[in-house]
Amino acid sequence: MEIYVVKEGDTVDSIAQGYGVPVSSVIFDNQLVYPYPLAIGQALLIATGNTPAPSYSAYVNGYAYPYINQEVLDETLPFLSSLSVFSYGFTTEGELVPPRTDDTFMIQRALENGVRPILTLTPLGPDGNFNNMLISSLVNDEAVKSNLLSNLLRVLTEKGFQGVDIDFEYILSDDRVPFAEFVAQTRDFLSPYGYPVSVALAPKTSDNQSGLLYGGMDYALLGNAADSVLLMTYEWGYTYEHLSYT
Description:
This protein has helices spanning 12-19, 23-29, 70-76, 104-112, 132-139, 142-159, 176-190, 219-225; strands at residues 2-5, 43-46, 61-64, 82-90, 96-97, 116-121, 164-166, 197-201, 228-231. The chain is of the alpha/beta class. α7 (176-190) packs parallel to α8. The termini are far apart.
């Protein structure tokens, strides 16, 4: 190990390059946090010699639309643990609405690459936008929930999916508990068949955070209801637009 003192203009990349060591090694050895800011005079431990770079295990999920370019899909799959196919909607009666573009090739390519294809369930209305009244009609009606779960199991089995991701947004505050109960009911229904259930969470900074994205999401309830959760940090900004909330 050597100690390097940060100078003006230094970056993690430039320091790693100067020593001929992996950037990941500098980050890991010094417990740096993204976006890895450095202060002039800061002391860094540098693993020189033949010290192997640290390795990490991670579960990596990717969302993709069925109209994804197949070449892009094939290039990405080797780096994924699961592929969430976006998306399946539903009606007020609990009937599933499949994507407009056939997703069969995505499922097949994922399976061929040892990647778990995941059915993404969304409350998209006829206009293609998230519809919180559609959520209410589902989570507060046992008959609709029962029909939807039966349809989910049928499609999962027929198409070869290996799990469900519940991606509901703009949930009404009044549906906070019923939504969590629906997630738990979905997990309990599908678990005997070997299908895990994840839930996508808007990135809250406090439990009582106000706003359309946050009021209907109870982290504690949903954490107990699902097998796993996905934090939707793309709510802060993504390819098509940048979102800012105050």
